[in-house]
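Can you give me the bound-state structure? Components:
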Amino acid sequence: MLDYAMQRRIELFLLEEARLLDAGQFEDWLKLYEPQGIYWMPSQPGQTDPLNVASIMYEDHAILSMRVQRLLEARALVLTPMPRTTHLVSNIEAKEAEDGEFTADAAFICVEHQADRQRIYSGRHAYQLTPHDDSFRIKLKRVALMNCDGVHSPMAIPL
Amino acid sequence: MEQSATLPTPDDIKSLVRPDHVHRRAYADPAVFALEQERIFSKLWIYVAHDSQLKKPGDFIRTRLASYEVLVTRHSDGEIYVLQNRCPHRGARICMVDRGSSKIFSCPYHAWAFRPDGSLASVPHRKSYPENFSFDDPSNHMQRVGKVALYRGFVFATLNENPEPLLEHLGPMTEVIDNLVDRAPDGEVEIAESSFTLEYRGNWKLHLENAADIFHPSFVHSSSVAPARRAPTNASILDQDQTRLMLAANGLGYEEWEGIQLNGYAGGHVYMNNIYNAGVMVSQKADPVAERYRAALTARHGAEKTAQVLGMNRFNNIIYPNLIINAQYQQMRVTIPLSVDRTMVRIHCFKLKGAPDEMFHRAVRFLSTLGSPASMIFSDDVEMLERCQQGLARDVGPWIDFSRGVGQESRGAEGQLSGAASEMPMRVQFQAWVNYLTAEAA
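Here's the bound-state model for the whole set.
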């Protein structure tokens, strides 16, 4: 079991990520990722293969950068008006992994409000975190959306 | 189908379509939608499945045909059947998943059990049923729906008792199915296990029109084109720059449009060619994957045929009314109307048997980039389709304009040809639409 201080530092890091997304600070959000970091949102429950099974998102820093730039483009249709979100991250279980790295699992709910509708996303996050200065960088974030294999409307904001 | 509203008359339908304008009711009137379900989605050949999804007896997929939820099944006789997903006993929906394999479809209510051809296999407590209760009576079977026909693995079905032959309906569009299958070195394609299902709040025709419209991308997709143009090349560790190239490819300008030709056929089928001359799937210089693939294809077809197969450069081949194929990208979309203002889109990709695994990984990435719910491209299309529906739902200025390029199209052997800026494809689709909706019931 992690000592309380480390557990708390990891919790605060996950909360910082949620806050940056809610604040629309997407460039700062991207800085939380390692240069080789990956954001993965599978399309199947329990999906282990991102190459032979399509993903809702399977993107590294280079592709996420384009996504973030798009979020900042004034003409992104799906983002007008800009959605407002509340990300809740909870049930955080952090563990020490090999080579001084950490893993963290959490449950999340994201409520997204845009124009005349409100959507709710929920599921579980699984992180691989690398220590960086006095904080962390994300090596992998796997977003297991509860209804990943369901029928979807377009998703505008990272979860 | 449940029907209370009076269906529009042929004269009413004809009054909605002018040579260069269409009345908003074509998109927003539930009675028009009901007639479409009866005259288009019940009468034409509708794509329902691919036989690679039905490899062995018992394999099934769940989809829709007209207003019905159906199971497309493979029976032990090897035949493919389309069955109403409904127990004849009390009417309960039987199957609640989109695909699977089962030798028996069992109704959970009173456990009537059916074979994959719909026939009744067993009922519990047989002896309490009347003497004349017959297992052979079709009214005790899961109801078989219409007719089924295949073209090179693509399964089409129709409720029409007397349909025109499938090949006649497909017409010149068989070429794109041929081209997709011929791209497989082993001569077979297989639908990938994963697919996406999206729903938008708009009429089904908007999706087909958008796919036939090369005019919109540089406007609608500018928010992903601009970042892709600014991004460094070959920066991703996950792909060979395909995502960036795909995003950037929507930035076609007036000059690139010049080489694009739109093709429209009498049945409402439409495609465009010369869109990506290189093709983002295999566009890299010194691309070892593409080289291995080309070698495998050449081994099967010979150099000349290989050049011909890979040379076919057609985009968004629309097989009216519900299928869009991009052979070059091993991808396909199925448009499923739910109501006058709600549409489901299923997006699949294909594995080319005998091609390098990496070719398939590229197709999977293409599926994600272009068809995922979080797609940086399709999401903006959907936003536009929904905004169109919101405007068309209001009776303000009832006529919408399809006049761009009217009178400038030329006649080809089997249809019309135009430049990229023309709205000819939509005019062709609406001519077909009027013909289908006003045809005498078969």
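A couple of observations. Chain B touches chain A through 48 residues (CB under 8 Å). The mean pLDDT of chain B is 93.
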